[in-house]
Design goal:
The structure holds 2 protein chains of 2 kinds. By secondary structure, chain A is of the alpha/beta class. Chain A contains 14 helices and 13 strands. In chain A, the strands form 2 sheets. Chain A has an 11-stranded mixed beta sheet with strand order 3-2-4-7-1-8-13-12-9-11-10, with helices on both faces. A two-stranded antiparallel sheet of chain A has the order 5-6. Chain B is globular, with a radius of gyration of 22 Å. The two termini of chain B are about 20 Å apart. Classes of the chains: A alpha/beta, B alpha+beta. At the A-B interface, α6, α7 and β5 of A face β4, β5, β6 and β8 of B.
Chain lengths: ~400, ~500
């Protein structure tokens, strides 16, 4: 193995299986059925076999099920669907519901209480048609709603301020479109992805205005879908598979639910806080990360992440994005490059192209890193040896973030 | 939204209420009661930003709004900073229609904005109507910023009268296309988020600023309207809550008042009552506010539909620093059914030509002539005469019949440019002549309300008017404001009906 890091921490947990559904419009499936489909896929992916009765607890993440499908007591639905009567918990943390469920599950494993946990995330958004625009504002505060804001327009306020402060250049405008093109490019070979087609910068810049300066193709879509992973204690992992993926950092940070009360419109504090703790926990730096699942709900968020993470300097991500895209746009994966160091962000298409069923996204990110680290991503497998992956899941406009670092090979 | 949630939000939304730590000065919107800098329960004082100016720090044009705001179409939402970033709040930019092509938001960053009390949305046709002051218009646009300075009074009159006034005319206008508008050349049009309540608040705010008095001493407020947004629930209580009329106690105020209804004289009828109150020792208050406010109603393509305007005028009565004493009062009433609206009906019906001679002219001319007789004055003793103005021809003819000349009538004929403001009509005409009146000038004002009645008032202007003039926004200035914007008939109907 090429990784020569000496990781100073013992893993929180090990992932031994992962499954998901296709993301997109799932007109014929109820949300609980989607969740169970992903869960069963995760169970069946465990190499040496794992049955439903082997699961000792479940952690689910979902955001809007009460509104979109008039569901409550998710645990009861899942107990009925799975036919098991174990402890189950549901976490709501807006778009970070999945990441937060995973964070809680890691704590549960680390506590020693359970040996095997199923962690799932799901969302059913298309049943609400355009009412989902109102529903999503549950992740903002009522004053933002009453100001007429929608989720795209809140992120558009970040984008406008970013352009005002740092990007008075046509290349910045193009870079923020290139992020969408790059993520669509990555999704072309992802069999689960919602959008498996290339788009061009011109396509993005000519797509309908949603919330100036955000256009339709700057946005992640409205999606249905679910994802699940199976967690176990690190010391038990090889009982289930020869290729467990270890969770070596699991962090969460919170900040004001409201964008307007935060310190900055061009940075996300929870990303900086959670990422620093995650990197410190493992004793590595951002430059050691090889692939990152970044919460690109809108392309501006991916750009801001690249600055919050320190990969690019504050205000300079757009230049790095522009130069990287121009240099690598014909590659299978388009990495971001800084001082010769490459970082592949959203190798399966991210929220933008893989889809964004809100509560499923955090778990879908873990799923993507799991298959990439195991070399099982098929046609969209990254063409280089990787051992460190990061998952960045944001809730709302930055009210919460979870950061997880995963690895395949641990060197004592 | 439920009624209790609404009440809690009103306390914050109407005045942009924030809390400030008494130790470190850090300020929070929405208000909270633990300062971050203390890490424990702190002494927090409530402050508000209703009369402040903010700065836009970022925003977006919302092209695909939530369902609650879809009636507005595209609009700008923004984050507004007050006191150089001490607090930031979200707000919708109002009185502004973004272009269809992409707007460069970065060009708006740094612009100053002014809070505006506007309608947000409703819970359907039967539910509550939600209002807020978290709406802003650009300072360099139609609505100028005014500081609210409370001025110590310098003299007390023996005779009560007007101590301040404010007129609010919306930014939008529609031009008349033919002669059916009886001399009305253009009319004010409410923006999509305006109604009689929001007009009343704006006019009342301007009256307080003009008078320079402390709103705590306004003990009674009457709002006359025939287009109040609720059949049952007063505009007055909203005006009171927003403008903080009376001494505050537990989120309410020690003041009273009602909404009144008598077609277009719903407000002016109460001028004499205001004077009576402020001279009555039992009243115990110093000032009375009277507002005439209407989003004047008319059915599509009815003759009224080509004369109606929208707006409000507010008058404060008292005995301190009076700018015009109220000297004579003559009311005249009869049961004449010229114009009416049954409960549950959206638009008024009227008797066509019957609204003229036996209704408007009979009552207006009778009241005017009797006022002259009572006072022993002749038309020559007046500098100005103003009347209720359903159009430009009626008031001119009535005044001319009584013996007034063109130079006395014309200055108050603002109906030509604002349309029929119903309850706000004669008060706005009065304001327009007070804007240019000199000390010693006499003004004869005659209102008219269908159903039917008139009252005439004779005012004498005092020298105090000159001290307050710089704090007024003259009617003419609003009429000629270069930022006024014209809309087409369909837009006018759509906006008017939303706020009807």
């Amino acid at each position: 193995m090429t990784n020569s890091l000496s990781l100073k921490i013992k893993p929180h947990a090990a992932i031994i299986g992962a499954g998901r559904t296709n993301f997109g419009e799932q007109w014929y499936k109820d949300p609980e059925k989607l969740m169970i489909e992903a869960g069963i896929n995760a169970l069946e992916s465990v190499d040496f076999g794992l049955g439903r009765k082997d699961i000792q607890a479940c952690y689910f993440g979902s955001f809007l099920y009460q509104t979109t499908n008039k569901l409550g007591l998710v645990s009861g639905y899942m107990a009925r669907e799975l036919g098991i009567n174990i402890p189950m918990n549901t976490t709501e943390a807006a778009c970070a519901s999945g990441g937060s469920a995973f964070y809680n599950a890691c704590i549960a494993i680390k506590s020693g209480m359970y040996n095997v946990i199923l962690v799932g995330g799901f969302e059913k958004m298309t049943d609400r048609f355009n009412k989902i625009i109102d529903d999503l504002m549950f992740a903002a505060d009522p004053y933002e709603f009453d100001a007429g804001f929608t989720f795209p327009s809140l992120y558009a306020s970040m984008m406008a301020r970013y352009i005002h402060d740092y990007g008075d250049d046509q290349r910045c405008i193009e870079a923020l479109a290139q992020i969408a093109c790059k993520n669509h490019h990555h999704a072309v070979n992802n069999e689960y992805a919602q959008f498996r087609r290339e788009i061009t910068v011109q396509d993005v810049l000519k797509s309908p205005l949603v919330a100036d300066p955000i256009r339709l193709l700057h946005c992640s879509p409205i999606s249905d879908g679910a994802a699940a992973v199976i967690l176990t204690k690190p010391e038990l992992a090889r009982k289930y598979t020869d290729a467990p993926i270890y969770v070596i950092a699991s962090q969460q940070a919170t900040d004001d639910v409201s964008l307007y009360t935060r310190e900055s419109l061009t940075g996300i504090k929870v990303t900086r806080l959670a990422l620093k703790k995650a990197l410190d926990e493992v004793g590595i730096s951002m430059k050691d990360i090889q692939i990152a699942e970044v919460h690109d709900c809108f392309t501006i968020e991916e750009a801001i992440f690249l600055e919050d993470s320190g990969f690019y300097e504050k205000g300079k991500a757009w230049k790095g994005i522009y130069e990287s895209y121009e240099s690598f746009k014909n590659s299978k994966h388009i990495p971001y490059v800084k001082d010769g160091k490459e970082l592949i962000v959203n190798p399966g298409g991210g929220l933008k192209a893989d889809g964004h069923p809100v509560g499923a996204t955090g778990i879908r990110q873990i799923h993507e890193c799991f298959i990439q680290l195991r070399g099982e991503a098929g046609k969209h497998q990254v063409d280089k040896e990787i051992n460190l992956a990061l998952c960045h899941n944001i809730g709302g406009t930055g009210g919460i973030a979870t950061l997880h670092i995963l690895t395949r090979d641990i060197y004592e | 939204m439920s009624e209790p949630i609404t009440r809690r939000k009103i306390l914050v939304n109407y005045r942009i209420q924030a809390s400030r730590c008494s130790d470190c000065g850090r300020t929070y919107f929405p208000p909270k009661f633990i300062c971050n800098n203390e890490g424990r329960r702190s002494k927090m004082d409530l402050v508000d930003y209703f009369y402040h100016k903010g700065t836009l720090i970022s925003g977006s044009v919302v092209r695909k709004p939530t369902n609650k705001f879809s009636h507005i179409g595209s609009f700008m939402s923004a984050i507004i900073s007050f006191e150089d970033g001490n607090i930031k709040i979200p707000g919708r930019i109002t009185d502004y229609i973004p272009p269809e092509e992409e707007l460069d938001i970065t060009e708006f960053i740094g612009k100053n904005v002014i809070p505006r009390f506007r309608r947000l949305y409703t819970d359907g046709h039967q539910g509550l109507i939600y209002y807020s002051s978290l709406n802003f218009s650009f300072e360099d646009d139609y609505y100028p910023y005014q500081d609210y300075v409370k001025v110590e009074h310098s003299n007390v009159s023996e005779r009560a009268g007007i101590v301040g006034y404010g007129v609010y005319l919306p930014k939008f206008r529609i031009k008349s296309e033919d002669e059916s508008s009886l001399g009305v050349k253009e009319r004010t049009v409410p923006f999509v988020d305006e109604d009689a309540t929001t007009f009343a608040v704006e006019a009342g705010k301007r009256a307080l600023i003009h008078a320079g008095i402390d709103s705590r001493y306004v003990k009674k407020c009457f709002v006359g309207s025939e287009s109040a947004p609720y059949a049952v629930k007063p505009c007055m209580s909203t005006v009171c809550q927003v403008l903080q009329l009376g001494e505050e106690y537990a989120g309410g105020f020690f003041s009273g008042g009602i909404d009144s209804q008598f077609a277009c004289k719903a407000a002016t009828d109460l001028f004499i009552d205001a004077v009576a109150l402020v001279t009555c020792p039992t009243f115990g208050g110093e000032y009375v506010m009277i507002i005439g406010s209407d989003n004047s109603q008319a059915e599509r393509n009815d003759p009224l539909d080509f004369t109606v305007g929208a707006g409000a005028a507010a008058f404060l009565f008292g005995k301190k620093d009076v700018i015009a004493t109220l000297d004579y009062y003559v009311p005249y009433t009869s049961d004449t059914s010229d114009f009416y609206r049954r409960e549950g009906q959206k638009y008024p019906k009227h008797g066509g030509r019957f609204t003229g001679e036996p209704a408007y002219f009979k009552h207006v001319v009778t009241a005017m002539k009797t006022a002259l007789k009572l006072s022993g004055l002749t038309p020559k003793d007046f500098r100005f005469v103003v009347c209720h103005s359903p159009n430009a021809k009626f008031p001119y003819s009535a005044c001319h019949e009584v013996g007034f000349q063109k130079d006395q009538i014309e200055p108050g004929l603002v109906v030509k440019y604002v349309g029929n403001l119903y309850s706000g009509s004669s008060p706005t005409a009065l304001a327009s002549v007070l804007d240019i009146a000199d000390p010693g000038d006499r003004i004869l004002m005659t209102s008219y309300g269908s159903g039917a009645g008139s009252e005439s008032y004779i005012f004498t202007v005092t020298k105090e008017i000159e001290n307050k003039r710089e704090r007024s926004i003259p009617v003419k200035e609003q009429i000629e404001n270069p930022h006024r914007k014209y809309v087409d008939y369909n837009t006018y109907r759509k906006w008017k009906e939303i706020g009807a």
